[in-house]
Predict the structure.
Amino acid sequence: MITQVHRPFSRLPATCSPFVASLRAFAAAIAALILGVFPCANAATARPNIIVILADDLGYETLGCNGGTSYKTPALDKLAASGVRFTHCFVLPLCTPTRVQLMTGMSNARNYINFGNIDPAVVTVANLLKQGGYATCITGKWQLGRDVDLPHKLGFDEACLWQHTRRPPRYANPGLEYNGVEKNFTQGEYGPDLVNDYALDFITRKKDAPFFLYYPMMLTHSPYQPTPDSAAWDPKATGEGVNQKPEHFGDMVAYMDKLIGKLVAHLDSLGLRENTLLLFLGDNGTGRGTRSMMGDRVVIGGKGTTTDTGMHVPFIAHWPANAAKGTVCGDLVDSTDVLPTLCEAAGVALPATLKPDGRSFLAQVRGEKGSPREWIYSWYSPRQGADRTVKEFAFNHRFKLYRDGSFHDLVKDPGEREPLSVAKLDGDAAAAAKRLLFALDQFKNARPARLEQPAPDTTDAPAKKKKKEKQ
């Protein structure tokens, strides 16, 4: 708007009448006033760029800003210090279930098929943002089905992926798929570097219009192998069975943080950081058995379990133009909440036929009260192979109720080793049991019958229309 007002006057000759000169001076004064009073008006009101970074197998205890003392995470700690750090974000205990919830905004009860696959008919946040005018890209770990065209069907214009059409090594000398085209690396390249480079390139190419980058990182999933910054790094290493040691997990956490720092610095260099909404979270708890410290307290990774160490993950929101700065939010956040939050931030209306289970936490990102959750509902059945066991439960900050009647006080018994009898509860516990039973009842008939039919497990099946890079 300022440019449009000022441009006609810039065409005036150097020598002009006193009236015109006064007009020019008045316009310049108005422009200066607007720029001085509203220096960030454009950034605060324009649609933001959106980046969602999903770390693999990274529990709450791993970040310094959360009180973790085993690893160095300066880039993420800095984002938390200048953004919003959520202390009660929960996801599902394994990667595919969480990824399906995050992308669709729906509970797994409604649309989950099996491990390593997503229903190709679902509507994702990428579909919605693309329809709303965003350029869209996914770079990192896929593991959602081997159809070459699936990322495009799910709303992504571009894709640089690991484990899309096959499962090659992911770290030293990896195999990746660039928009479905398989490419193998053999000159000491490091997979996380390659997908991070693609992310930076996408940002550069799309910097002049709103973009959505979904970045599900390969780090810090096992195998725990050296990174290029490790003393034990071997550029000739091949395969995921070599050079594995538990202590390399710390190197991988540090390298993950380093890559995020590079991405943030790139946003700065392009002048994009002010109006970029960046979310960072983990996809489930830290790898089972991985030992980390929070001061004097030992935390053992609980990936795959429905306890706190399997589901409680770090979550940071950073948006300089609009987010509260240096705040901590204790509200409950669930992975289904990401889709409605991003759509609200982007000004993209949800279709009338789409009713996500998640709720937007955008108000909390802005430092407002919002409409916090009273509880989180989880339907967990990863369906790896023939196992179709279902764990269904609801919980709040203090208590947890399973569909089978098991009730737990999460403060006194975070490991859920001593279930309480609902019939013997009183006071706050009895009231919580009633509310959590109400939550479970909201999803009593949520599972479509068609999804209970045995589905083929295509995790290791050959990809359709597989493409290979031309030599």
Remarks:
- The chain has two domains: 47-374, 380-452.
- Residues 223 and 244 are 6 Å apart (CA to CA).
- Confidence is low (pLDDT under 50) at residues 1-41.
